[in-house]
TrEMBL record, chains A, B:
<feature type="domain" description="Aminomethyltransferase C-terminal">
    <location>
        <begin position="306"/>
        <end position="361"/>
    </location>
</feature>
<dbReference type="InterPro" id="IPR006222">
    <property type="entry name" value="GCVT_N"/>
</dbReference>
<dbReference type="Pfam" id="PF01571">
    <property type="entry name" value="GCV_T"/>
</dbReference>
<dbReference type="InterPro" id="IPR027266">
    <property type="entry name" value="TrmE/GcvT-like"/>
</dbReference>
<dbReference type="InterPro" id="IPR028896">
    <property type="entry name" value="GcvT/YgfZ/DmdA"/>
</dbReference>
<dbReference type="Pfam" id="PF08669">
    <property type="entry name" value="GCV_T_C"/>
</dbReference>
<dbReference type="InterPro" id="IPR013977">
    <property type="entry name" value="GcvT_C"/>
</dbReference>
<feature type="domain" description="GCVT N-terminal">
    <location>
        <begin position="19"/>
        <end position="266"/>
    </location>
</feature>
<protein>
    <submittedName>
        <fullName>Dimethylsulfoniopropionate demethylase</fullName>
    </submittedName>
</protein>
<dbReference type="InterPro" id="IPR029043">
    <property type="entry name" value="GcvT/YgfZ_C"/>
</dbReference>
Length: 367, 367
C-alpha cells in the first residue's frame, strides 16, 4: 500500500485523536475527510465486529441541512423515492439522481421536522448540487453543511453499550428511526442504522467539541464488552450487499441498475428532477444490474479498479468490490452484470490482476 | 505517514502505470483520484524541478465541458471575472463563487471556441454545481466530464523536451494561451501553464488510451535532459504563492480574501451568480486576506490542520500550508490574516504541533 500525504485539505474529524490513539493503520479519503479503514487487520476487525461492539468514526458522512418552508419540496426534487408518507423521526435511504436519472449520491435522509432535514451523504459534494438546485429554482430554503459528525456504534453488543451511556431508552429505537437523547446537556439525534449488518446505531454528534468526550465515554463504558475502535469493514459490507458510491456505482448508473428500484416510486415521486428520465427504465427494467458474485480460488488482491467480467471472451460486466470471506470460505464480490448473464448460477470469468478466475452469479448477498 | 487503502473509488489515471514504474512513494486524493505527492523525497523533487524537467500526472485536474449555445453565458454565471474580452485560444484563472460569494473552486477556464469550454478544476465536485445551475436556469448547454486528463511538463527544460515530441511550434505558445498539436494522429490542446513557477506546459490528453504512449514518448525523448516523474511540489508552490483549494481557502472565503480580487471584475461581470454578494466586499475590501508568512526556527512538521496565528494571545488568523524552504532558509507558509495584523513586517505567533513559533508577515511570496 502507498502512503497518504497529510494536508489540511484532507480534513480531520472530531474523533481523529481517538482514532490515532487506537492505532489506526490505514485510511481512505471520503468527502475530503479522513476515514479509517484498518485498525488491527481487515480480518481481525471483521471477526471482532461480528462478535463484540465497535466505535466507528464516520464523520465523513457529512450532513446537508435543509431548513425552511421549501425544505420538503427540495428533498422530493432530489430523489425518485416518494417521501409523502415519511414522518419526522424517520430515516429513509434515498437514491439521489440528476436530470438524466444518473446517481449522484445514495444518502440517508433524516426528517427532523416538516421544515428541517439532514441528508447524510456518501462520497460526493452533493452540497453543490443541492445548493444550485435551490438557487436555480428560487426555493425558500437554507442549504448548508452543519457541524454534525456521525459516530457509529456497530456490532451485536451495541444496545448494551449505548444504553450504558444514554439510558435504556435507546433499546426502543426501531430500525431507521431516531430519538433524541441527552449527553452532557446536549440533545443528540441517535438512529438505529449504520453501514454494517451486525446491528447498531449512529449518533449524530452536533458540535465537534463533544466528539472526544463522547468517544471516551463509550470506550470507558464498554471495557468489559471488548469495545474497540473500528470502521466500515470491506469484507462484511460486501457479504451484506452494502453498496459503496464511487466503487459499485457512479453517475453513469440509474438506481435501478444498482438494485435500488425498490427505493424508487417513479410514478408517484412528483417533482423529482430525474423522474422523466427514469419512467422508461422503471417500466422496462435495467439492462444491467448489481449482483453478488462468488469468485473461486485463493484470496483475491485488493480491487482498485474495475475487473472485467467475461463470458466466452465477451465482456458482460465488471466487478467493483471484492474480498476473501473467512465465514463463507470464498471470495465475495459485488459486480454489475448484463441481463444476458445475470441469472443466478451463471458461471463467468473475472479478470483479476492475478489472472482469470471462475466466478458465479449468486441469488442474493451472503448476509 | 499513514497508509492509503486502495479502492476503485479512488480512481487511477491514464498515467498511473507510469507513476508506479517511476517509484511513487506517496499520494493524496484529489477529485476522487490518485495524485502523486512524492517520488524521491519532497526536497529532492523540489531541487530537480528547479533544475531540470518533470512529467506530472495531473489527471486529477478533471475537465468540465460546456458545449452549446448557452456555454458562454453559463461560464459567466459561474465567475466574477469578466469574460467578454476572452477569445478562443486563451486560458483564464477564474474564481468560481456561489450565490453568497463563497469560493467553490478556483479552476482554469479554457475557451476552445465560442460555444465550447473546458473548466480544469481544483478539488471539489464542481460538475454538480454547474449541472444544477444549467438545469435550474434551463440553459441550452451540455455539461459533462469528458475523457481528458492533463499531463504537465514543468521545469526550466520544458520547452526543450516538449519541442522534441511536438515540434518547435510549442515554443511559440504564450503564457496562458494554448495551441493544438498532433500526437500519433490525435489533436491535443497544449497550454503554457501549470502549478509551478518553473515554467512549462499542460497537455490536455484527450482519450485515456494515449496516456501511456505520450508518457513514454516524453520519458524517452528527455533522457539526456534528466527528465523524471514529478508532481506538484509543496515547497515550491508555497514559495510561488500558488493557492490550494481546500487547504488555503474553502467555501467560507470570498475571492477577495484569497487575494484574488484582481481576477474579479465585480461591476462588469453581469450575470455572475455571486455578483450581488461580492459588490460590497469589492468596494470595501476584505477584513482578512491571504498572506505569505515566514516561520522562524527549524523545519516545521506537516501542516495537516489549520495552525492558529495569534498576537498577544488573541487569534488573528491561521496558517494553512507550510514547509521548510532550502532555497530561502526559512519555513515558508501561506496564511489568512486579519487586517489589523496583515501589514508586512508584523511579527506574530504561530501555534504549531511543535510549539509556538515566531512568524513574520511578508510583503509578497518568495518567487
Amino acid at each position: 500500500m502507498a502512503l497518504l500525504s497529510p494536508s489540511r485539505r484532507l480534513r480531520r474529524t472530531p474523533f481523529s485523536d481517538g482514532v490515532e490513539a487506537a492505532g489506526v493503520k490505514a485510511y481512505t479519503v471520503y468527502n475530503h475527510m479522513l476515514l479509517p479503514t484498518v485498525f488491527r487487520s481487515v480480518e481481525e476487525d471483521y471477526r471482532h465486529l461480528k462478535e463484540a461492539v465497535q466505535i466507528w468514526d464516520v464523520a465523513v458522512e457529512r450532513q446537508i441541512e435543509l431548513r425552511g418552508p421549501d425544505a420538503g419540496r427540495l428533498m422530493q426534487m432530489l430523489t425518485p423515492r416518494d417521501l409523502r408518507g415519511m414522518t419526522a423521526g424517520q430515516c429513509y435511504y434515498v437514491p439521489i439522481v440528476d436530470e438524466t436519472g444518473g446517481m449522484l449520491n445514495d444518502p440517508v435522509a433524516v426528517k427532523l421536522s416538516e421544515d428541517r432535514w439532514w441528508i447524510s451523504i456518501a462520497d460526493s459534494d452533493l452540497l453543490y448540487w443541492v445548493k444550485a438546485i435551490a438557487h436555480g429554482w428560487r426555493l425558500d430554503v437554507l442549504v448548508d453543511e452543519p457541524d454534525v459528525s456521525p459516530l457509529a456504534i456497530q456490532g451485536p453488543k451495541s444496545d448494551e453499550l449505548l444504553s450504558r451511556v444514554f439510558g435504556d431508552g435507546v433499546r426502543d429505537i426501531r430500525f431507521f428511526r431516531f430519538g433524541v437523547f441527552d449527553f452532557q446537556g446536549r440533545d443528540l439525534v441517535i438512529a438505529r442504522s449504520g453501514y454494517s449488518k451486525q446491528g447498531g446505531f449512529e449518533v449524530y454528534v452536533e458540535g465537534g467539541d463533544i466528539g472526544m468526550p463522547l468517544w471516551n465515554a463509550l470506550m470507558e463504558a464498554g471495557k468489559d464488552l471488548d469495545v474497540h475502535a473500528g470502521c466500515p469493514n470491506l469484507i462484511e459490507r460486501i457479504e451484506g450487499g452494502l453498496l459503496s458510491y464511487g466503487n459499485d456505482m457512479t453517475d453513469d448508473n440509474t438506481p435501478h441498475e444498482c438494485g435500488l428500484g425498490k427505493f424508487c416510486n417513479t410514478h408517484s415521486a412528483i417533482g423529482c428532477i430525474g423522474r422523466d428520465a427514469l419512467l422508461r427504465v422503471a417500466k422496462e427494467g435495467p439492462v444491467q444490474e448489481i449482483r453478488a458474485i462468488s469468485i473461486d480460488g485463493p484470496p483475491v488482491p485488493g480491487c482498485d479498479r474495475w475487473w472485467p467480467v467475461t463470458s466466452e471472451g465477451t465482456v458482460v460486466g465488471r466487478v467493483s468490490s471484492a474480498a476473501w470471506s473467512p465465514d463463507f470460505d470464498t471470495n465475495v464480490a459485488i459486480g454489475m452484470i448484463r441481463m444476458t448473464h445475470w441469472t443466478p448460477g451463471t458461471v463467468l470469468d473475472v479478470e483479476t490482476p492475478d489472472g482469470t478466475r471462475r466466478a458465479t452469479v449468486n441469488r442474493c448477498f451472503w448476509i
